[in-house]
């Protein structure tokens, strides 16, 4: 059955666009995406031709200055955002800081930020470091009930990094708007593995990371989205020269750039950014609904395989609409099992205290690998 | 004379460690350092072996997790800082934001930040975006007089990006301390071209960029320094998971890391960081006083050459102790001249409204190039 699925998979050819080590089943693309073939080629050109030969002139001649927006344009297509709304820059944590700070200003006098305990820790830490803000952390299933007219900003991660549970982005955003608040979403575990549709769901602000399903490489620059209706009032809490209307005028007064460029701060990390740009080429023209369809099929097959296996508990929701691209299992010896699997060439990851996580990247994972993982788990879990 | 100087130059061999395009005299290393030979080799290994083969395990197996500190350790030697005081991370603007925010907390109730109009614009913008702070901007020559007991933080750039004028880092820091205030220095135009001696001068906090004299590549990660005596009380205004005492415990509560690690925020940009790491190898064992000596000699020779040339005004101080590694000239047709020179293969840069800047990198520039620049200026400046 798995072989048939692979044979019929319309995305199977994409795997050739990645370097994957021999003898390894890599199921950790939700943590670090595999190396796209396009990246080493782009880096070699960047080093020898752009930096090595054209040197400083590359900022204009080779488009370095525009790279944050160029990557942003690719991302807009991927997550269903309006043109002119995204830029690739900084880390996810820094972008989250900008997004939540700006959201609080958009929210006016309401100083309550609602989030949940399933949010990625760095997002909670950043919220905790904001001044004069009342941060309310509720369990994920209580977010809807806790969204009151007191709340100024609802700041959530779309897909839970541990459980794989997915929030109802459309429904929560609509609820947040009906109460006059602002919705900020972290798409780190959803961008590149599903459609997201930021514009259609009228999301206010969003951020996400470039190194998971986007395959941009270790610590790839992150991204930030600001809806067109908020850009005029978006205030970057760190006013840096690359967020200036005319950075190369070197004026003493800060005048924010028009549009999404104002979400930038300092000089872009060109090497990391060029790698992300090259990594995103594989998404060109790709129908994200097909990517999501394969993702759902892989995770469903995997859940079917492990359900009822002694010792394992499936933590991720069974209903496909309520989950992202990875599946988490609870097992009392989770840490040990991940190590044993790695020894056998099957790479997943462990999240304390007792979770095994497996990410299925529709761009390079095969149904056959899902089956092999299932068999391996049956063998080691006894 | 110039040929003799090159023949006798003890640093002349270092030039072989760089890729420099044929037929080009590159005098813009104060803006973007040239490509070190070590970088393409390191990047090839990073891509094929670390990311491509070892994948997620590289965070530990190949030292990615420690890379910000590893680069920090190299930098400590370069700028004369104590062990355990530096980390390479984020952009200069973001580090400046952290440093100044933390300095304000260290300064207690004093909410006045003193800076000067020669500071790099992004630093002024960041200061202007801080809340509840009284920012005083004075001309560079008035900094000493304006340093009063009202001031909590004196935040300056060591070497002026336009004029090349250097502040008396030791004297101003001592004055600042005598008044109970905190000194924050931006070393972007001094790190890698002189000794700096942060520890000896008891600097409180410092930042700087990795892509000028450090040759880390376009938009290389920046650095931040926190003196040992302040680390315990250093509060990062953006609490991110990589500044946590145990990032991989994924705990909900933020506990800052001990020591300089708390100055980190998000996931490090490994590709850009590895390039900077490789670029710094050339400094291993290098005596920074020799680097400075060659720098002074080159800039002195250049100033001697252009002094009195019709149309040109030397903006940079004649006294070597009062300048950094680049020399700026004023000329009414500065923008045009820089373009004409570039056409002849001599790369400097233009800063509005009327400055030509030339940076002399002691690691790869030759005395002969100083002479050729002088001759070219004489020809085009008429």
Overview of this protein structure:
- The structure is a homodimer of 382-residue chains.
- Chain A has 382 residues and is an alpha/beta fold.
- Chain A contains 13 helices and 15 strands.
- Chain A has helices at residues 2-8, 38-54, 58-61, 67-79, 92-106, 121-129, 143-146, 169-178, 228-231, 270-280, 288-306, 334-343, 367-380; strands spanning 18-19, 25-26, 35-36, 86-88, 112-116, 134-138, 151-157, 182-186, 205-208, 223-226, 313-314, 326-330, 346-347, 349-351, 355-359.
- In chain A, the strands form four sheets. The first copy, chain A, has a seven-stranded mixed beta sheet with strand order 4-10-9-8-7-5-6, sandwiched between helices.
- In chain A, strand 5, helix 6 (121-129) and strand 6 form a beta-alpha-beta unit.
- In chain A, helix 1 packs antiparallel against helix 13, helix 2 (38-54) packs antiparallel against helix 10 and helix 11 runs parallel beside helix 13 (367-380).
- The first copy, chain A, is globular.
- Chains A and B meet through helix 2, helix 5, helix 6 and helix 10 of A and helix 2, helix 5, helix 6 and helix 10 of B.
Write the layout of secondary structure elements.
2 copies of one chain form a homodimer.
Chain A: H1 2-8, E1 18-19, E2 25-26, E3 35-36, H2 38-54, H3 58-61, H4 67-79, E4 86-88, H5 92-106, E5 112-116, H6 121-129, E6 134-138, H7 143-146, E7 151-157, H8 169-178, E8 182-186, E9 205-208, E10 223-226, H9 228-231, H10 270-280, H11 288-306, E11 313-314, E12 326-330, H12 334-343, E13 346-347, E14 349-351, E15 355-359, H13 367-380
Parallel strand pairs in A: 2-13, 5-6, 5-7, 7-8, 8-9
Antiparallel strand pairs in A: 1-3, 4-10, 9-10, 11-12, 12-15, 14-15
Helix pairs in contact in A: 1-13, 2-10, 4-10, 5-6, 11-13
